[in-house]
Amino acid sequence: xxxxxxxxxxxxxxxxxxxxxxxxxxxxxxxxxxxxxxxxxxxxxxxxxxxxxxxxxxxxxxxxxxxxxxxxxxxxxxxxxxxxxxxxxxxxxxxxxxxxxxxxxxxxxxxxxxxxxxxxxxxxxxxxxxxxxxxx
Length: 136
Fold this sequence. Notes:
Helices cover 4% and strands 48% of the residues. By secondary structure, the chain is mainly beta. Strand 4 and strand 5 (52-56) form a beta hairpin.
């Protein structure tokens, strides 16, 4: 999977050092709790309007503020890219891309990919990344 830093609606976008950032509203469909399963992905991802918490057996990103670098929600599904502002020493993947397949039940079809950097994500994360199926 490659990071797709997609277009953000102009009304929701602000320029931030050349990168596009968009805020989340309290009604955004990505907000909430997600569960991961399996050896590397067991844990929880929680997205609030201001912070992300993501814990797995190999990475602990606890309560970091974030910037949204790409946001798309349409007929082809949901795709959002988050960059954690203060990921902490135990957070192995400070760049997250959350996706959801279109047409699936709202509780299933979610996936998160974690990357060490934006550059790693743009290259498809071949060097060090994780991809986890999620459910709500």
